[in-house]
Amino acid sequence: MQLDEPLPLDAVAPRVRRVILGEYQERWPTVHEIAQIPDRHWLATPGVGPGTLEVLRSITHPPHQQDELGSPRPSNPEYGCQSAGVRS
Length: 88
Known about the structure:
mainly alpha
């Protein structure tokens, strides 16, 4: 998900959707805007608890792709081959 995309409000509970829209004066915020609000602020907001914060952070900071062994995939496929001692 790109940071400049609108936050997918359908991914959160209706009460949380109301809280988010209230924070932004009924305007639909971007993923970046939500990501910029500190956890402390969200947790002090009525209707937002640790579970809700976890959902928001899973949207704004998705986990990196990992291979089946659990290690991050190299961004450069050539790098992956060289690190394994394989030359093309």
